[in-house]
Amino acid sequence: MSGLHQTAIVGVGTSEQRKRLERTALSACLDAALSAIRDAGMDVSDIDGVAGRWPGPGGTVMHPGSLDWATLLGIPVRWVQDTYPQGVPAVLDAAAAIAAGLCSSVLIVGGQAAIRDATAKVAAYTRPENEFIAPWGAFTAVHFALLAQQYLHRHPRSREGAAEAAAIIRNRGHANPEAVMYGRGPYTAEDILSANMIASPFTLLDLCLATEGAAAMVVTRRDIARDTRSPVWVLGGGCDWHKQQYVDPPRYEEVWSIGSDAAERAYRMADLKPKDIDLAQLYDINSFEVLRQLEVLGFCPPGEAADFVCQGGIGPEGDLSINTDGGLMSYSHIGWGGPTLKIVEAVHQLRHEAGDRQVADAQVGLATGAGSGAQYHNVVILGREPH
């Protein structure tokens, strides 16, 4: 049995998600962290591991700064994760640390607020001061557009499939009262295609949001998890890292299939196949990345994602429910907390507490992070029952 199987997510929490919060990122993150701990039925003193980018003010300027969370919470800790303290990598690292006996219960937290400069056209974090980026003015969407253009050249039908995928995801946010874009729909594929062009082939509605808020979760060991109200078990996972994100421009031949090895390892570890997955919370930073991930994760053959989508594969009557809260395109995308939101929604679904958006009898879910333009991809498989 894998060491990851000895762990479960037992608490999740979020702050309110808004286009703009009238509060600091630290305040929102603290709300989410305390909410996740309460959801786990734990006390702050039960936490002995932390993975969380420190948003300030105060504390260190040497990011991520997980140890500042221990200072704020007033607890000693046995383990911190400062390499990539968010989403799937944080869960897998926490699970590995717990399995190794380095700690027992890990808080993962992240988010953002006050990100908008009234004079800027894009959020600052989408145009980092990186080599080759700052001098030429590229931003996140451009990295992904370079790859999407090549995929579109190879598969011309993919443009309609990507637009259909975006419409489906946005309509799920349209129906979710907790989503930033609640009531902003419904959308058709034609609406996606006719929106303002941002970075060809992406229109505005092909792209994710840049919003404010925070998300958190608590991972703990098996014996503690069994005494909590509703644990969701870590069944498998994997990460593929190619290059540092948003430095060198991505090359299609190198990164379009990134994540396939991580997915294969995750399925093998969980002793499952793509057909066993009831729902997938895909990192929908743009519509073409959704198509790519459907192929990489084995839900359809390479080059056939557009047909899979247009034939209803991810629609209301389809076999695979994706991004049930509205995803990054319509629910929220909160920077360092964005990947964690994917797992939070998977947990709600597997606990059968997602209300009107609940996937019937959901037993196994999958969540991903990042993608081709970022030049890394990660996958975790979660279950309602332990391995």
Task: Give a description of the structure.
The protein is an alpha/beta fold and 387 residues long. The chain has a domain at 3-117 and 211-225: Peroxisomal Thiolase, Chain A, domain 1 (3-Layer(aba) Sandwich), CATH 3.40.47.10. The chain has 13 helices and twelve strands. The protein has helices at 25-39, 67-73, 87-99, 140-154, 158-174, 189-194, 222-225, 252-255, 260-270, 287-296, 305-310, 327-331, 338-350, and strands at residues 7-14, 49-52, 79-80, 105-112, 197-199, 202-203, 213-221, 232-241, 279-281, 321-322, 364-371, 376-383. A ten-stranded mixed sheet has the order 3-2-4-7-1-8-12-11-9-10, with helices on both faces. β2, α2 and β3 (79-80) form a beta-alpha-beta unit. α5 packs across α10 (287-296). The model has no long low-confidence stretch (mean pLDDT 94).
- The assigned structural class equals alpha/beta
Strand proportion:
15-25%
Unreliably modeled segments: none
- Average pLDDT taken over every residue: 94
CATH classification, class level of one domain: Alpha Beta
The SSE string, one letter per element, is EHEHEHEHHHEEEHEHHEHHEHHEE
Global geometry: globular
**What's the CATH architecture name of one domain?**
3-Layer(aba) Sandwich
- Radius of gyration over alpha carbons? 19 Å
The separation of the N and C termini measures 8 Å
What's the CATH H-level homologous superfamily of one domain? Thiolase/Chalcone synthase
Largest sheet: spatial strand order: 3-2-4-7-1-8-12-11-9-10
Distinct helical segment count: 13
